[in-house]
Amino acid sequence: MYQMALYGKGGIGKSTMAANISVALAKKGLKVMQVGCDPKHDSTRLLLGGKAQPTVLEYVRNVPIGKRKLEDVVVTGTEGIICTEAGGPEPGIGCAGRGILTTFDTLKKLGVDDLDIDVKIYDVLGDVVCGGFAVPLRGEYADGIILVTSGEFMAMYAANNIMKGLGNFDTGSPRLIGIILNSRGVEGEEELVRRFAKATGTEVIAVIPRDGAFAEAEGCGHTVREMFPDSQISSTVDSIAQRIIDVSEGRVQPVYPHPLNDDQLSDLAAGREIREGEPPSTRDPCGGCGKCKRSIRDSRIMMSCAAYGALAAYMKVSDYAVVLHGPESCLYFMDTSRSKAVLELYDRDVFQITPTHNVRCTMMDDAVSIFGGVKYLEKALLDTIAEGHRKIAVITTCMPGIIGDDCISVIDRIMKQNPGVDIQYVPADGDITGEYTDGFMMAASNIAQSIDLSVKPEKGLVNLVATSFFDVHSKRNAEELDRMFERFGIKVHCRFLDETESWRIVDFCRASVDMILNDTENNRELYDLIRQRTGREPFPIPIPVGLYDYEEWLSRTGEISGKEDEARAEMALVEQEYDAFIKEHRHRFEGKRIMVLNKLSFNVDWLIDLLKDLGADLVLVAAFVSPRKRKTSVVSRHMDIITQDYDSEKVKDDLERLKPDLIISDLARNDEGVRFARVGKIGLGVRPTLEYAEYLENIMRLPYEEGWKRGGIE
Ligand code: SF4
After folding, report:
1. Which atom of ligand 1 is least distant from the CA of 398?
2. What is the 3-state secondary structure (H, E, C) of 136-165?
């Protein structure tokens, strides 16, 4: 079987040409199939007596996969020509390019390749505007390409673009058969198109005159080749058919075209001599060819997509329902990772998490991606409202972002029709707008807008602010936090954002103090959203870890709560305990050369302070930004001793040079001959830091060969 694609600008007459060529080929005794690849689905009309046939995409939309049959989407027309039409969405909705891909895929699955056909002709819409419309250019589909153009500049411009597209799908063999000039009566048209053909290294294989015979035949639902078989037009069409046969049988060679660059096209349009010039690049930089600067090596592993980040944020507010506008697979991925995390935590039997699951997905599938998903979004929203939800968030995944679903109009309309329903919109568009943290912040920004600024603060209430509350999900840390607050008669009012309810967010300003849970870049960014909404400032000391931050926190919390005495008493107690510990353990650390290599996505000031107090020699404290986190930057009181942007490839040299006794890192290491201890989030207050020091001490006491070198706290 020989496959051929007919390309050209929209409205140039491709379908008429394709139908005439199909008839001419069939009359030469060949078994022909014509595939219309245009959403307006009129390619095969002239082969079917002027009637339209059902389209593949409508069929895909209406018939479930298991019930589809090839005979439902192919119709036999004049001269036994097998006809099929892709169809497509309404203008401006969905993704027609995706529709072409689906059509080809569906026909293949239904067994189109088993049909007894000699020549298959693809009649393809206009310009190659995207990968979908370029599918027929792929080697697996088109053995040969014919371009249809007139002498109008835009028609030649489109033909030139198609030549560029052809270069992107090089099969290793030339495939351009030539150009058909479908005359429009432009002055000097034939000469112009022949100049274009010559300049691009191809030839005009046929000139079709403007002729009333076309309109007459089409009015009767037929081709000129059938109605006027003895006309000059029919003879020209026969010559095109013969050319296709000659190419398919190897008697005539197609060519590689040389598309013109913009300057050369202007010369052509102005009637000037076409200047010499480098042909335009046919390949955009993609990072895969090694010719351009981008490369796989530069790419980061994303934590997860923005849609997931937004979903995670809304799931922390228990009375929000989320409509995830996208395919089921996105929800599956997001839900699986979330459930896995939750399960892992439950397994350890120390965490108490109540996951919320008011999530509905619009289940976009292939058909929805072609025809647009707003109706599905509307239905999902109405179903969610019917279930009684009044606070809803719509989060978009990649697919609606790519096909351009107009979600805002749907949301506006439904909110107008349903007073009292608040629908927040996060156009995360999957990973198009960024990664997990970006989506989380977009959602948090929306949520923060509901804070009621008229609420007056009350003493004794505090808000906690963080993107993650895992630290205080463990029973031990939660109890420690309670103890820290109880001492001052303080109660937690709103956890922004964690297992809270929307009324607490509305009522956020009732608390007189906002405390950041950990001093990280993400948490500071989150507080910026609250600051923008409320004008408030956070408590100067985050929930403390280590002696010095704890003392500072005690002192300031004592002041604001009017309980300075309690603060002083606690300070005296922990100082005593700390000093006794340092005295007892210092001899184990004194003079020990320690390297701290950390991505420092969390603050380790407590560790630096503790090691200094224990007399350790900090030969290097280095921070390298994790490749998985774009935004993290170092947050520390000890910036003077921290080497920032540390290149992990320098570790080997630094080990030789600095000869440390111990490496402490939050990333697993296995450096020959050097003891290693892992550090992570440690807990709250002072006691956990002292326990960590005992762990370091044990590591340094054990012989190197004992197997602890892969160590870490489990
Ligand atoms: S990146 Fe896009 S496709 Fe993947 S899970 Fe996120 S939204 Fe879905």
Report:
1. 2
2. HHCCCCCCEEEEEECCCHHHHHHHHHHHHH
